[in-house]
Amino acid sequence: MSDPISALSLRATHGSVQVSDTGVHGMITLRGDLASSKIRSLCKDLVGLPAPAPREVQVKGDAAVLWMSPDELLFVLPYGSVADSLARIAKVLKGQHHLAVDVSDARTMLRVDGPFAREVIAKLAPVDLYPGAFGEGQVLRSRLGQIAAAFWMSGPQTFEVICFRSVAEYAFDLLAASAAAGPVGHFPRGT
Amino acid sequence: MRLRTNGRLVAKNRPVHFTFNGKRLQGYSGDTLASALLANDQLLVGRSFKYHRPRGLVAAGAEEPNALVELGRGDRQEPNARVTQVELFDGLAARSQNHWPSLEFDVGVINAKLSRFLPAGFYYKTFMQPQAFWKHVYEPIIRASAGLGRAPETGDDHTYEHFNVTVDVLVVGGGIAGLAAALAAGRAGARVLLVEQTSGWGGRAVVDRPSIEGISAQDWVNATLAELDAMPNVDVRLRCQGAGVFDHGYALAHERLTDHAPKQGGPRQRLWRIRAGRIVTATGAIERPLSFAYNDVPGVLLAAALRDYVVNFGVAVGERTVIVTNNDDAYRTAIALHDAGLDVPAVIDARTSAKGELPEQVRALGIKVLTNSGIASVDGGKRVTGVQVCAQDGEGTVTETIPCDCVAMSGGWSPVVHLWSHCGGKLVWDEPHAFFRPDADRPPLGADGEGFVIAVGTANGHLFTAEAIADGFSAGRKAAKVAGHTRKPGQAPMGDDVAEDALTPVWIMPAQAPYKLRSKMWLDYQNDVKVSDVQLAAQEGFQSVEHAKRYTTLGMATDQGKLSNINGLAVLSNALGEAIPRVGTTTFRPPYTPLPLAAITGVARDELFQPIRKTPVHAWHDAQGAEFEPVGQWRRPYAYPRGDETAHDAVTREVVNTRENVGLLDASTLGKLIVKGPDAGKFLDMMYTNMMSNLAVGKCRYGLMCSENGFLMDDGVVARMDDDTWLCHTTTGGADRILAHMEDWLQCEWWDWQVYVANVTEQYAQFAVVGPKARQLLQAIGGMALTKDDLPFMQWASGQIGGFDVRVFRISFSGELSYEIAVAAGQGAAFWDMLVKQGEAFGLMPYGTEALHVLRAEKGFIMIGDETDGTVIPQDLNLNWAISKKKDDFLGKRGQLRSHMVDPDRWKLVGLETVDGSVLADGAYAVAEGVNANGQRNTQGRVTSTYYSPTLKKGIAMGLVKHGPTRMGEVIAFTKEGGGFVDARIVDPVFYDKDGEKQNV
C-alpha cells in the first residue's frame, strides 16, 4: 500500500476568498430506512453525532454526517477508520436491508472560505443561498457550473464542497475563477 | 449642440475625451455617447441596412434603431453598441458602421436610387431564379453590402460571470412605478431585487417633473432610494436590464459592471439568473414615431427623446425645432425647448383641436399651434432643413413651408409589454389610448396557477403619475403578500401632473397620402421598411402579421421593432380592412435587447468551457505524450506514440505487443454500479436480457441491457459479490445513464422491491493487464494466487498484489489472458507506476483505446455505439445466446417480439474482409441492385467497425448485412470514400482465436 492521495494534492488559492483541497477524507454512503433506530444509533456510533434531518448536516470537527436523500446518508470520518466503520455498519444492520459502500476515493472535498464565500457558490449553483434560506447545519446537492456537487457550511463564511474525483480540477478552477472575480454585493458580507 | 443650460446628469467641470471615426471630440462626465455626439453636432451616426440612407439619432434609450457603432479595438472590439446606452468615458473610441467608403459619402446609397427595384419581398422574388446565381452572384453581393458591425476578430479578455438568486419580488424598471413597487414590497419584508437598465433612477418622471407626495419627483426618487438602500432585504441595481422572463418565475437580468468604467477591475458583465415569486414589470413605455414622408432624415427624432437630451444632458439637435404630434405630451418638449432658449416655430397637431392645459401653456409662450395639420414632407438630405405643412385629413397639398433644423415627433406611446409577453401574458387593445396593454385577466401563469408577472405603471397603460405610482405600490404589496410578507407598507404615494386631452390615432400623415409620399414614410429605420412595403405585403396576400413581418423584414433588425411594430401592424390592419386587435402583434421574445454571447457564456470558456473527467493516472498519460480522445466527458489515451511514431504506428505496436507480451490499459472509466438487496437478483434479471440471479458468488457474466423497446443500450460484465450484492460494469459513457435508468425503474415502477444502487465508478482505478505474460508479471510482483485454478476465467477474487488491496477480475475484452485489477483511486497512480516498472522485464507497454478496439474487433466482440446506434437489437448481433429464454420478462422482451424485430430481413452482424486486403471506410454502405423511390442506390448493409489488423496484417471489419449470416463467403460491394466501390467477402466476425483458447489459459 502507498499513502492515499487526493486528486489535487492539497492545492489552494490565496485571496479574500480562498479555495483549497482539504485532502483525503473517509466517506461512506449508507442507504437504508433512515427512520430506523439502528441507523440513527449508527450516527452516534460512527461519528458521535445525531442523525441529520432532511436537507441537514451534523458536523463536529472533521467528522460529519449528511442527509443526501430520503434514503441516503453520507458519513465523513477519518480515512483510516472506513474499514472498521463498514464492518460496524454490517454488524449493526445485519438482517436489515441496506447498502453501505466506501466512497472515500470517489470524491474530492474542497473548502471555500472568506467573506463572500456565499456569493462564490451562488455564482455557480442554481439554488437559494440567501442567509436564512441556507446556513450552517444545512446541506444542498446541486450543481456547480456543469457538474454535480454537494455543499454545506462549516462556519459563518466557510463552505465545504464535495464533487466527483474525476472533475476535481474543473471544480477547483471554477471556484477559484469565481472567487477571483470578486464579490457581487448581494448578500451581506461575512454571512 | 451644447446648450448654456445645465443638463441634470452632466458635470461641466469634468470634461471627457473620446473619438468618433478617429475624430477627437469632447463631452462631459455624465454624458451618453449619444448626447456627446449631439453636443458635437455629429448628427449623422450611421447608414441604414438596405438603402444606406443617412441615419441620425431617433431615440434616447434602448429603443434606438439607428445609432449603432463599433466600440474599441482588438480584443476589446464590440459591434452594434447602441450609443444611447453607452456611457461616455475618457478614451472611448467609436466608429460608425455599414458604410463604404465613408460615413459622409457612401456608394451604397445607390441602392436608394434603385429602391423601386427593391420592394418588399425583394429577396424572395429575386433570388429564386436562376439557381446558380445564388452561390456566385447574389450571396457574395449581399454579404458585401448587408450587415451592420464587423464581428470581432480576436478573443475577448474580459471576465464575465453568472449569479443565481432567489427573491420574493423582482422589480424590473427603476422609474417611479418600479420604485413604488420595490418600496411597498420592501417595507412588507419581502426579498426584493430592483433592476434598472439605465444609469439613473426615476425614468421619465425626473425629466417631466410631476409632483409626488407634494415634493418634486426627483426629491421623491432620492428619498425612496435612501429608504430602499437602508433595507437589508432589498438589492437595487443600476445598469441592469431585465432581459427575459421564462417559465416558473425564472428571469434573466444583464448587469453591465465596467462598460462605463473600463479601468475598473472585476467582471465586465454579470448575468443574473433569478428565481422570483412574482415579477413586477415597470418597464415604461416607448414613444411612437409618426409616418410622414422623409421622416428618416437626420434631425427628425422622438419628442420625448429630444426632451431627455435637453433636460438630462443640456444638448439639442438644432436651433429651430418643429414639433409634430397627435397628443398633448409632446407639448412638454415645446416647453422644455423654450425654457432652454431654443426656437419652436410651430407645433403641428394632427388633431382637429388642441385645448388641453399643455397646448394652452404653449400658446401662452407665444408658440404657434397648427391643428388638423401634418407634415407632407421633410426637406433636407443629411439633416433637416425644413418641413412642408399640409392638412392632416388631406392628400398632402402643401400649405406652408417652415424652415427648421430639427423635427420632434410624437405618435403616442406604446407600453413596453415585452417582459409581460415573454412567457405568454396576453394583451388587449386600448382604444382610447390607441395602444396594446397587458390584459390583467390573462397573465403568464406560474406553477401555482396564478399569474406570476404583474405589469405596472406606464408599462400597464397608466400614462399619468397618480395612477402609475399607485399601480406600482399596490403591485409591490400584492407580490410581497403572496410570498407571505404581510407587514403593512403604508399608504401609496400620491402623484400629480397636469391633465391631458385624448390623442387621435395617426398611422399615416397625411391620412390620404398618395403612393409617392407613402413610399417615403419609414416604419423601420434600420431595415428600411416603409409604409408602402407593408401595404404591398397586404396586397400580395400576407394577412398574418407574422408573415408580413418576415416578408417585409419589419421589426427584424437588431432593435426588434421597438419603434416600428405597432405602427407597422396598424398600417397592415388598415390595408387589410381589419381592426388592429384582430391583426394582433408579432411574438415578443427574450432577450429585450441583444445579450452578448460572452454574458450568456459566463465563466464557461477556455479551460472551463466544459468539465473534463480525468482518471487517477491522467497525469502519467499526459507526461507520456499520449494522444487523448474524448469518451463522454472523459479523456482517454487513444495511443501512446513513442519517438517519431505516428498514432497509427503506435496502435500497431501496442496491439502486437499485447498479443505477444503484455499490455496495460487504464480502464478506470468503466462504470461500476453496486446493486444490493433481497430483490437485487430479481431486479437484475429484469435489467439484463440474460440471467443474473443465478450467477454464483465469485463469478462474472457478460450481460446485455435493452431499452423497453428492445434496443441494445449498454453491456458489461456483472460480478456477484455476495449473497445479495452484485457489481455491474457499464460502458464508459454509460455509468450515469444506467444508474439513472435503474433508479427510474426502482423509484417509479418497482418501488416496493428492496434494492439499493450506488455508483462507485470513481472509487476505483481499474487497470487491465493483458497478454500471454500477464500472469508471469503479476506473479513476479507477488501477492494473491492467480493461477488458472486459483482464479479461473470469468471469476473474481480480492486480495493483495504488491502490497496493494485489490479486486481482480479474470475477464477479457481482447481474447488474451487478462486480469482487470481494481484498486482504490487514491492509490491508482502508485499501483500503475509499480505495474509499469515491474512490467519492463516482461515487455509491458500501455495501450490506448484504439488498440483496445482493434483487439476486440479481431475477436468479433461488439462495442456499444459502434455495432449499436439505438436501432439495433441483440438478435441483430447474433447475441441470442445472451437472451434468456427461461425468464418470464425482462426490459425489452416485449419490444423484441414486435413484427419488425423478428423480421428475417433485418440486417445482421457479419465479419467483412476486403478482397484486396484494404481497410473499408467507416460507415460504408453495401450497395444492392437498383434505386429507391428517391433515386438513391439501394443498400443491403453497412460497416459498423473497421480497422487494420496488425495481427492478421490486413483490413478487417464488422458490419450489418441483410441475411448476412447465411451468405458466408459471398463477395459484395461497399462504397469507398471519394467514390467507387470495393469488394469485400462476408466472413465469420471472429477473426482471431475462434475457440478462445488464449484467454482461457
UniProtKB/TrEMBL annotation, chain A:
<dbReference type="InterPro" id="IPR027266">
    <property type="entry name" value="TrmE/GcvT-like"/>
</dbReference>
<protein>
    <submittedName>
        <fullName>Sarcosine oxidase subunit gamma</fullName>
    </submittedName>
</protein>
<dbReference type="InterPro" id="IPR007375">
    <property type="entry name" value="SoxG"/>
</dbReference>
<dbReference type="Pfam" id="PF04268">
    <property type="entry name" value="SoxG"/>
</dbReference>
TrEMBL record, chain B:
<feature type="domain" description="Aminomethyltransferase C-terminal">
    <location>
        <begin position="908"/>
        <end position="993"/>
    </location>
</feature>
<feature type="domain" description="FAD/NAD(P)-binding">
    <location>
        <begin position="168"/>
        <end position="419"/>
    </location>
</feature>
<dbReference type="InterPro" id="IPR006222">
    <property type="entry name" value="GCVT_N"/>
</dbReference>
<comment type="similarity">
    <text>Belongs to the GcvT family.</text>
</comment>
<dbReference type="InterPro" id="IPR027266">
    <property type="entry name" value="TrmE/GcvT-like"/>
</dbReference>
<dbReference type="InterPro" id="IPR006277">
    <property type="entry name" value="Sarcosine_oxidase_asu"/>
</dbReference>
<dbReference type="InterPro" id="IPR013977">
    <property type="entry name" value="GcvT_C"/>
</dbReference>
<feature type="domain" description="SoxA A3">
    <location>
        <begin position="519"/>
        <end position="600"/>
    </location>
</feature>
<dbReference type="InterPro" id="IPR041117">
    <property type="entry name" value="SoxA_A3"/>
</dbReference>
<dbReference type="InterPro" id="IPR029043">
    <property type="entry name" value="GcvT/YgfZ_C"/>
</dbReference>
<dbReference type="Pfam" id="PF17806">
    <property type="entry name" value="SO_alpha_A3"/>
</dbReference>
<dbReference type="Pfam" id="PF07992">
    <property type="entry name" value="Pyr_redox_2"/>
</dbReference>
<dbReference type="InterPro" id="IPR023753">
    <property type="entry name" value="FAD/NAD-binding_dom"/>
</dbReference>
<dbReference type="GO" id="GO:0008115">
    <property type="term" value="F:sarcosine oxidase activity"/>
</dbReference>
<feature type="domain" description="GCVT N-terminal">
    <location>
        <begin position="617"/>
        <end position="887"/>
    </location>
</feature>
<protein>
    <submittedName>
        <fullName>Sarcosine oxidase subunit alpha</fullName>
    </submittedName>
</protein>
<dbReference type="Pfam" id="PF08669">
    <property type="entry name" value="GCV_T_C"/>
</dbReference>
<dbReference type="InterPro" id="IPR042204">
    <property type="entry name" value="2Fe-2S-bd_N"/>
</dbReference>
<dbReference type="InterPro" id="IPR028896">
    <property type="entry name" value="GcvT/YgfZ/DmdA"/>
</dbReference>
<dbReference type="InterPro" id="IPR036188">
    <property type="entry name" value="FAD/NAD-bd_sf"/>
</dbReference>
<keyword id="KW-0560">Oxidoreductase</keyword>
<dbReference type="Pfam" id="PF13510">
    <property type="entry name" value="Fer2_4"/>
</dbReference>
